[in-house]
Structures are given as structure tokens and as C-alpha cells.
Amino acid sequence: MSQASHSRTANRPFPALRVMALCLFVPLAACQTGTGQQLTALDTAEGSTENIASLSAVIQRSPNDPAAYNVRGSAYGKAGRYDAALADFDRALQINPNYYQAWANRGLIKRLKGDRTGALADYNRAISINQSYDAAYIGRGNLYRDLNRTQAAFQDYEQAIRLDTTDARAYYNRGLLYQQQGQHNYAIEDFASAISLQNDAPAPYNGRGLSYLAQGDEDNAFADFNQAIKLDNEVAESWANQALIYERRGDSARARKSYLQATKLDPSYAPAREGLRRVTS
């Protein structure tokens, strides 16, 4: 799908929150499935010790280059070293206060650390500097979702899409909002757009599969859940979703096996535990 066709999916209706959820359409075991996974801008491979060391060497050669600090800060973030990341973003912004990428990156790290007020201020600053910076809208939209400000989150994802973003997160997260409202046709389109932009992540396949299931399309749902497992077989939600299809088809043995795998990967994952109880009772 081209960027142009992606951008035409904006301007869809999104009503105020209604009492409607996926739970009205599928068993309880699936209601929470697909909501915990997220596409992320953080790639842990880029936060390797070797990569950080090479970036530090760049900073030694160019100690007043804000881009160098911004890149190393991102690497620290990807490695989970949030305090070091914040220090680098702070330094980048000291050198160049209009470096909007560093504002948005610092907002992401603050959000991950639980500083929502600080994160919102940083995202707002990034957008005030560059109103066409799609990543800042997506990041702020994710923060708004954390704050249950659903309408504001939708508007930010919508703006990123209007800007012809190639970031799959905008479509994936907007798809989750449509799914939450029971607008599964729109959700399926958005998950498909996310897949076309990032086809190696299980999250949009799980999301699309749930919307297919809500529409009674069990075969396409099953195909998506299986693809999610193929892409990453260590995601509990994917196994629980697959198990749900087996359970609905009356194949308790396969359902039990998949639910067991999900509980091994995440013993706290309620849909897997509840499903396992159902098929072993």
C-alpha cells in the first residue's frame, strides 16, 4: 500500500466513548488479548554495548554535536539505561534547544519512567518546534492512551497519518482504538496498514485476528494468530489467541497445549490461565 493510500484512511469517524468493547463479541479469554502488546520505537539490538561504545567514540571526537548525543541517548534507551539516555538528551538540548527529535526522544524515556507530566511537556515542545514531526504525535498519542484520553490519542494518531507517516505504530494504535469501539472494519484496515509497514511484528496480526474473530471470521483470525506465533513464538498473547480458536473448534487437546505455552511464557497472563482452566475442567 502506498503512502498516498495510507493517508486517505484519515478523517474517519471516531465517536465519543460508548459502552462497547470486544468482550461483547468474543469469550472473556480474548477480551484482554492484543491490548498488552505494543509496537515500539525501541530496538534493543541497537542498544548493544558495542554500539554504545562506538557512539561514545563519536562524541569524544565531536563533543558539541547534539545529534551524537541524541543518537547515543536513543541507544541507551534501547538498552533500558534510561537515566543515561536522559542525560544525553539533556546535553543535546543544552547545545541546541530547538532539536525537536531530542525533545520527543526525551518524552518517550520520561513516559517509560512514569513521568507523564514531563513526557507531555516534552512532546508538546517537540510539536511546537516542528508541527510536521509525526513521531512526536505518535508518542504523545501513546501517552494520551496511558492517561485514558482516548479522543486526544485518536486525534494525534490521525494527525500522524495525515502527515503520511511510515511509522506502523500510528495505524496499529489507531486500530486498537477502533477495535475498542467495536468498529472492526476500520480496525482491520488499520492493522493491515501497520502490517504493510512493519510485517515482522506479531502485535498487528494479533490485533487484526481479534477483529476478524469479533466479526465471526474464524479462519482469518486463526491465520493471523498463527502468523504472530511464527514471527515471535515467545509472546503469550499469540499462543492464548491460537488456543482460543482451538477451544472454539472443540479441540481441547490442542487448546490446552497452546494455553499451557502461554502460561509458561507469562504466568500472570489472565486469559491464558482462565482458558487453561476451561479446557482442563
From TrEMBL:
Domain of life: Bacteria
PROSITE patterns attached to this UniProt entry: TPR, TPR_REGION
UniProt keyword Lipoprotein present: no
GO molecular function, one term: transferase activity
Signal peptide (from-to): 1-32
Keywords recorded for this protein, A-Z: Repeat, Signal, TPR repeat, Transferase
Start-end of each TPR repeat: 66-99, 134-167, 168-201, 202-235, 236-269
The keyword Nucleus belongs to this UniProt entry's keyword annotation: no
Protein name per UniProt: GlcNAc transferase
Originating organism: Notoacmeibacter marinus
